[in-house]
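Listing S7. Sequence submitted for prediction.
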Amino acid sequence: MKYSETEKEKLNAAIDQREKKERISEDNLSSDGKIIESDKESDTPSSSENFLENYTKNPFKRMQNERKRMSEAMKDMKASEKLKYFFEYYKWHVFVVFLIIFFILYMINFIYQRTLPVAMSYAILNNNVNADINTDIFKDYASYYGMDKGYKTEAVTDIILSAPEGSDDAEQQMVNNYKYMSFATYCSENYFDIIITDKDGMDICAEKQHIYPADQVLSQENLEKFRSMGILTESKGADGTAVYGINISSVPAIQSMNLRYKTVYLCFPGVSEQNIENANKFVEYLFK
């Protein structure tokens, strides 16, 4: 005999109803036929039932239930016990929240620092990489022009263009080569306002066209001032000999920097409007 779909559904429902009635034993029925609730504990722990019940609710309802559960669990606890209980139960939640807050604050500070105007961007060449350089001169410079707050100073102090005597360390040479490539890229992008170096460094920079002749950066007034002082210094560049630096060895603040070399030169690797402004400000500060 064939049944229609509707008849099959009715038949299945009747079978399910019969099986349900059979599962109710006579012990569970009262004299009037009502089902008596068993005092026997369910096989499923209440905590699991609560968890499953909570899991099916929306997030806000789950949070409300969690607060209620914790409130009931901690109502008879002392303050120290409540705190311990909270951190034991929510330690990973607290850790994740802390990481998120730290990352957000770090990104805000990073973006803020990137947007600050540059008081000075400089490079120090051919100095001992491990030397403790005194850079107070740049802090004093920024303070002199009222740029100690809301401005930033950028520096690279570990560029070696001329190998130290007796140096044959291949690994160190490779590191120096990598740093030199970065330095050359910075120079081509007008990143640095000034370079502080020895004569070897100035000659190499002039030859490799990492610096510009002083008359392309310094004002006419400053050029005449330094020419009369006899501190303008020539190097041979790709286009011939020209004034590429200023001998600043006599400046007390430069002497206090603890550089490896005694004869110190100031060179100009950038020709943007900002480079020129900062470079002229710096030399005027040095010889004020």
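Caption to Listing S7: primary sequence and predicted structure tokens for the chain studied. Residues 79-115 form the longest helix (37 residues). Residues 38-49 have pLDDT under 50 and may be disordered.
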